[in-house]
Design a protein that fits this description.
Two copies of one chain form a homodimer. Chain A is of the alpha/beta class and about 230 residues long. The first copy, chain A, has two domains: about 5-20 and about 95-220, 3-Layer(aba) Sandwich (Rossmann fold), CATH 3.40.50.1000; about 20-90, DNA polymerase, domain 1, CATH 1.10.150. In chain A, about 45% of the residues lie in helices and about 15% in strands. Chain A has nine helices and eight strands. Chain A has helices at about 20-30, 35-50, 60-70, 80-90, 100-110, 120-130, 155-165, 180-185, 215-220, and strands at about 5-10, 15-20, 95, 115-120, 140-145, 170-175, 190-195, 210. The first copy, chain A, has a six-stranded parallel beta sheet, sandwiched between helices. In chain A, strands 2-3 form a two-stranded antiparallel sheet. In chain A, helix 6 (about 120-130) links the parallel strand 4 and strand 5. In chain A, helix 1 packs antiparallel against helix 4 (about 80-90) and helix 3 packs across helix 4 (about 80-90). The longest helix of chain A has 18 residues, at about 35-50. Chain A starts with 6 loop residues before the first strand and ends in a 6-residue tail after the last helix. The relative contact order of chain A is 0.18. Chains A and B meet through helix 2, helix 3 and helix 8 of A and helix 2, helix 3 and helix 8 of B.
């Protein structure tokens, strides 16, 4: 049976934002475009490692530190700090995926409460949604900067539920990342996997309740109309 | 002051093993060679995420699951499982870095106890060290499969200390990965960063006690002779 959540918690990076332009930022500084994917996976790897050891680091600090390590192979020492900042600044100028605007409007029009919950800063989410013209569809923009720990720690989802004033049974996490869906499930929250490319869901992570090809498809599956 | 550990705990993957040949395995199945680095970072990302949610997954299961997701873009569905196994089998056939054999022998000859502690299986470490002819230099090959949690959780290092019968103050972790050194430090263990490429250590991780360009250099710095 498809869940009927009253609150949708959206992951932000890659789930709402299209990170494809980051490849161009790496090319700009003389690094291979493929480093964009390695960097982002490594950023999360280090953020989760610090979560394991009991810390709650700033996303931007980890992003910057990993970039500084990974660009040394491609950028001279004298240009390294400028290159790091050039790549990082691209992160604040991304746009949403093509399905996001209509999907978000359909979900919002159906009366579902829309909230973001990011390991990144709320400011990055605000800029992204503002540029897309859908900022007013969202009730709150939450970051683990205000939570005890990063997602996928249960405390991160519990923080969002507490702020929204709903039990886990009334919420659903929406994300492209299996690790995020796994964490939400472990915290008792229903899950929707956004699978835009037709991928394979890894069996080491808890399977999602709903799989959708985009936010419009999710809106249809949740009975919220859609494009 | 340089620490004088009685036990050296060696990380295995990338610290002892040279993972460069994995790129060829990805090329064999029609995927870009750059995916090797993204895959390994993503494998650790997912393993750490599961550590955060309280699980202790098998390294090979996570390795396989991430590969299955990441190869779908490059390999037909009918060939996907074979491609995953082809890449994975390369992991069991790696060789050590050029500095490892002489470095390990110098450390062993100086009377320091040598132990491996891997998030992967002890069998992979055994095969690697056997092929290199230095298996007899190691007192024990430990895996977090027998520990409560993966590195960098404190329980992983505590497990190794307990098996070796030494306090944290007598041990040193040797690794190329800052996240591993950070975790060891949090568990009270001294740390040596093996930096073969002349990288930049990220400031979001606890700085190492010793930085060495390879295991021979580490042996020299610890006063254990060396090549």
């Amino acid at each position: 049976m498809t869940p009927s959540p009253s609150v949708l918690l959206f992951d932000v990076n890659e789930t709402l934002s299209d990170m494809a332009p980051m490849a161009g930022r790496f090319a700009d500084v003389g690094a291979p475009t493929s480093l964009a994917a390695t960097w982002f996976a490594s950023l999360l790897r280090d953020g989760f490692a610090l979560t394991v050891t009991g810390e709650n680091p700033a996303f931007a600090q980890v992003a910057r530190g990993v970039l500084g390590s990974q660009l040394t192979e491609h950028v001279g020492r004298g240009e390294l700090d400028d290159a790091v900042e050039h790549v990082l600044s691209g992160f604040g100028q991304l746009d949403v995926h093509p399905d996001v605007v209509d999907g978000v409007r359909a979900l919002g029009a159906a009366g579902v409460r829309l909230v973001t919950l990011s390991n990144g800063s709320a400011d990055v989410a605000r800029g992204l949604l503002d540029r897309a013209g859908v900022l007013d569809c969202f009730e709150r923009l939450l970051s683990v900067e205000q939570a005890p720990r990063w997602k996928p720690a249960p405390e991160a989802y519990a923080y969002a539920l507490e702020v929204c004033g709903v039990p886990a049974s009334e919420a659903m996490l929406v994300a492209v990342h299996p690790w995020d869906l796994h964490g939400a499930r472990a915290a008792g929250v229903a899950t929707a996997w956004i699978d835009r490319a037709g991928g394979r869901y890894p069996d080491h992570m808890a399977a999602p309740d709903v799989t959708a090809t985009g936010l419009g498809d999710l809106a249809r599956q949740l009975g919220a109309g859609g494009a």
